[in-house]
Amino acid sequence: MIRLRPDQRETYLRLHAEVWPSVEQTLRDANFRNYTIFLHGDLLFGYYEYVGDDYDADLRFIAADPQTQEWWKLTDPCQESIAEPGSGDWWAPMCEVWHLTDDAAAGASGQA
Asked: N or C: which terminal CB in the chain sees fewer CB atoms within 10 Å?
């Protein structure tokens, strides 16, 4: 998650209403699927599914893409990182507290 700067809200929403096709393709080429960004108040929550074998290499692939770098020059000023200082993260990772699985046997006991 990351904070959306209130004064940049309209810019950010406008940019994401028409994400550049080359940026989307780079994400696909880096094995990202079902990427969604949600907005709640001034917090952005990102969700994606990663289907590759080398997450760090795919992140470097994305970061090396010139079109993605240009995209980030537009979107980064709209955001305020809330990641742990010194972590090197721009978006703060969220801690999973619960996940519904597709395994019918896992929920057979009926307990939550």
From this structure: C
Length of the chain in terms of residues written: 112
* Rounded Cα distance, 112 and 95, in Å: 19
Residue range(s) defining the domain that contains residue 53? 2-107
pLDDT digits over 12-55, tens only? Answer: 999 999 999 999 999 999 999 999 999 999 999 999 999 999 99
Structure tokens that stand for 90 in this block: 């721009």
Q: Tell me how crowded residue 2 is: count the other CB atoms within 10 A of its CB.
A: 21
CA distance 97 to 109: 20
Give 53-85 as a DSSP string.
S-HHHHHHHHHH-HHHHHHHHHHGGGEE--SPT
Rounded Cα distance, 44 and 42, in Å: 7
Dump pLDDT digits (tens) for 52-108: 999 999 999 999 999 999 999 999 999 999 999 999 999 999 999 998 888 766 555
Residue 98 lies in a domain: yes
